[in-house]
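This protein record is not my work; I was only asked to verify it. Would you go through it and say whether the fold makes sense for this chain? Here is the record exactly as it was handed to me.
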Amino acid sequence: MSGDQVNSLCDQLMKAVTVMMDPASTQRYRLEALKFCEEFKEKCPVCVPCGLKLAVKTQTAIVRHFGLQILEHVVKFRWNSMGRVEKVYLKNNVMGLISNGTQNILEEESHIKDVLSRIVVEMIKREWPQHWPDMLKELDTLSKEGETQTELVMFILLRLAEDVVTFQTLPPQRRRDIQQTLTQNMEKIFSFLLHTLQENVNKYRRMVEVPQEQDALSPPQKMDLSQELKAQANCRVGIAALNTLAGYIDWVAMSHITADNCKLLEMLCLLLNEPELQVGAAECLLIVVSRKGKLEDRKPLMVLFEDVAMHYILSAAQTADGGGLVEKHYVFLKRLCQVLCSLGSQLCALVQGSDSDMGTPANFGKYLESFLAFTTHPSQFLRSSTQITWGAVFRHEVLSRDPLLLAMIPKYLRASMTNLVKVGFPSKTDSPSCEYSRFDFDSDEDFNYFFNSFRAQQGEVIRMACRLDPRTGFQMAGEWLKYQLSSPVDIGQMNSKTGEGLCSIFSPSFVQWEAMTFFLESVISPMFRTLDKKEIPVSDGIELLQLVLSFETKDPLILSCVLTNVSALFPFVTYRPEYLPEVLSKLFASVTFEVVEESKAPRTRAVKNVRRHACSSIIKMCRDYPQFVLPNFDMLYNHVKQLLSNELLLTQMEKCALMEALVLISNQFKDYEKQKAFLEELLSPVANLWLSEDMRRVLMNPEDFIQFVGADNKIADPVMEDPCGLNRSRISFCVYTILGVVKRSRWPTSVEEAKAGGFVVGYMSNGNPIYRNPCSMQILKLLDNLLALIRTHNNLYMPEMVAKLGETFAKALDMLEVEKNAILGLPQPLLDLYDSPVYKTVLERMQGFFCTLYDNCFHVLGNAGSSMQQDFYTVEGLAVELLNSAFVNLNNIPDYRLRPMLRILCSELLHAGVFVKPLVLSCPPDHYESLICPILGPLFTYLHMRLSQKWQVINQRSLLCDEDTADDNPESQEMLEEQLVRLLTREVMDLITVCCVSKKGAEQNNAVAADGDDEEMMSTEVTPPSSSELTELGKCLMKQEDVCTALLITAFVSLSWKDTLSCQRTTTQLCWPLLKQVLPLKGLESVLPGTLIPDAVTWFFTCVLKGLQMHGQHDGCMAALVHLAFQIYEALRPRFVELKAVMEQVPDIQKESLEQFDTKLLNPTLQKATDRRRKDQFKRLIAGCIGKPLGEQFRKEVHIRNLPSLFKKVKPPLETDLLDNNEDGNLIALFEL
């Protein structure tokens, strides 16, 4: 093509680019221009001359950038088809652009520099070192031409390291060639980088320091403009050199970093005091001190503890913090803090026991002082950053005994007393921390979430410190507690809405009380664990307890803190039992706490919390010290009976909490008959109410139930008017009480005590004792009505029952807002409403009643098995009773009610420190056939049908757009429904897994994520499914053909449902154990052909491939699914030729490779490759059906050819020189011309 044609084409391209980038262009013209430019890049044969012409520096930056993009496109997509001369021409011209085709370093646009460096790196990735051996020399020559070229060389070296080492965007062989060559030349590269950095920093300093070296009497002079520009250019190169170093020092050998007596570390420390370069220097230093590897290689890093390095680090921190809050300086302080933290981690790793030659560094004290300075900095973020390192040092075997560290503990504890005070909200100005928080947090909610986590972390570190010095921590806590008790209350500007002089959660007094309480809790626990009984300061503790018990306040927030202090100090009472009545009196007074007596207004959230707090404290005391409280049982019982005599004095939850406390103490009777009589007396009011004819009628009939709880009424005043509230509270009281007794009533843990007390009624075949629970007889009397209530509650969702709800309560069975927010993952607002009365509408109260009642009923059933054991499982007709109550009308029960039913009743609840042994897991194997299988069989079949329908709707919804949706917020509703289906799916799959699979190899993957937590989907750790086996219950279920079919279909169909977390769990834990159960036995196929038919085999295999198509973009899921597909194919292909037909339908499959794989698989005489190699081969075969992320589905593939290997492996028998066999001699270097 002639020059005129190229010029004409370039003119058209310039116009097109201008149209694309002009904000005034219409969309039509912009799309036409884009189409023209893209077609030009793809099809035009003169891209290189056009690109070079557009890239000249006389053009505008937009046009130049497009010209360089054309050249980059040519290198990435046409390089393999270009001739040698064309490649050399392009390479020389690009290097010419770097040499003289760019603007001055300060004037050139950053995106021009970036694309220019990308082009060179793309050529390097394709030709170096084999065909371009002098590349490094050429870059070195370019760098000598000036600062502009040096900066571009830095960009090229950094980009090369990122592509090859960090992101690994190359084929394995090319990556290996380039990385090995980089490693071989690393000494030269590092020398070049350090020389460039040092030279430009020295030039920069000379320029900057010239005006400062004037005579003190002469007037100050500024640098002239040329000097200032020269200094800025040198500074820019220095920054680029630091950034490039950061790309290398993470992976190069430590010998390069510590060469020449740690010259690099010395330079970096010096640059910490250079304002323009300090952030880059700190980044490099952070990467160095964060290095892992052999301890021997890391020892030179201890040079940073020497006087000079420590001086520079500390002086840089002081200077950066001295000028107030400047964002640049604050970023530097964060990096410097991270450097000190990593330095502490290195110290902990290097300083080992007495056999180590590395001792505590001489400047350890200075290091601790500097670290403490960050811990006391106004920035809450900086404070929190130091906690992990403090914890590591405090628990270190050697450092924790160092006198310097022990002397630092009081200072750290003093700092923690300040840090525990929750101040620094971004929206406020009441603390120096607020200004820093505005840089670090987007909202008060973000800060609140962060601070709660930070405070928990501090508590852990405080406990570690107090194990080393328990007395100092206790002394400080005591002084702080006394100060708070004697200080007047300061409510601050935001006073309470319910009364004069009451605190809000932001009041100065409350935040101090809250911090002090947390500190006291944190120091007392380790003191009792660390000190001998004789050394514990009992007198001091009792003195503090007396002060707290005598302290009176009407402020609910402060009273809640007081109750926590009472609980924290309670261990001292075990040494002085005479103070127990005073403690109980204080707690019982708080159970009935009111701010304003006889008030008609609802209680505030803070008042409710105080009352619940008091109940919880009593339960905790009875749970942890039952033997100690037992002598005061009669006093406790009388007090509770007195409170229960007034029906309106306590809420139902508060009543039941006090009854739970009594049940816990009664467990210490260790006398079956005595405890049974007590429980009978305790439950008699509940039994009389629950078993009455009126209540039975209400519980049996949905219409009567709706009328009894008032759900059919139309309320005029939905806030204050609630005529049936008392009826609802009575039902709640009964269910709460039943649950509390079932949860808390137990036999003695000692077998001997249980036998002596009459709790053992026999022995199982394995010799384990069979216990009886003293509550069984009473609870079983109440069971029929409980099951009736569950059946009635389920039937409330029938359309005819929903129609009977009153106008006010039309949405009474809907989901609570708090449930919706939890499912959607919406953050809860910051709770600043502690002082506001909780004015719930009667509809909200009704919704809460239905939700809580439903959950509690299933909690009773979930706990009944583990609590009452054989007394519960041998109830006549229990399976039929449960099927006719808990599992009735499931079609109408919404997902948000079905989920908790599955979780509570059947699935495994063994996380977050809670152990509620469910119905299924507690059942003895003897009752599998009579009880569990009749329940789970129909349930699994139903759940499979329900989930299949739900996912079908979701899949159709993604294809269709429903324009007639009348919902106020259809998008939000659809999101909620879809997320509910996902969560329900997880519950069902977890339930099947718990019932069917033993946890031999699946435990690692069995951590049940919180609702909506999808982090596990990115996990690449795959537990081989073969390590899991079916449980006895699983084998029992799989013997029933309909249940077996439902389980297999549910497990394999779920692999292609749009829930990655469920897919990964099911793949790793469930599919293979289930399938293995129905496989034909090897060697006995003709006698025992199994239950599998060819169509079923191909269906299972196809399901796994569909799962790969859906979830292949997630590494963890992809690895698990590939493993499962490989197992199925390898196990079943010899017996089912149909699997090969399925494989042949995989897109882009290599038929020859499939034949080879099959031949090796079917021929047992051939030597088999390792499992990993066979799996890799299989993965390549099915690569066509592995799904890709949306961003990669339509991306044009970049193909980089492998060059002749640099390092050929020579077989031992061959001793001939490789050069003698090379007919063409050495490889011709393309770019030597």
Summary: The chain has a mean pLDDT of 86. Residues 765 and 926 are 11 Å apart (CA to CA). Residues 928-959 form the longest helix (32 residues). DSSP finds 57 helices and two strands in the chain.
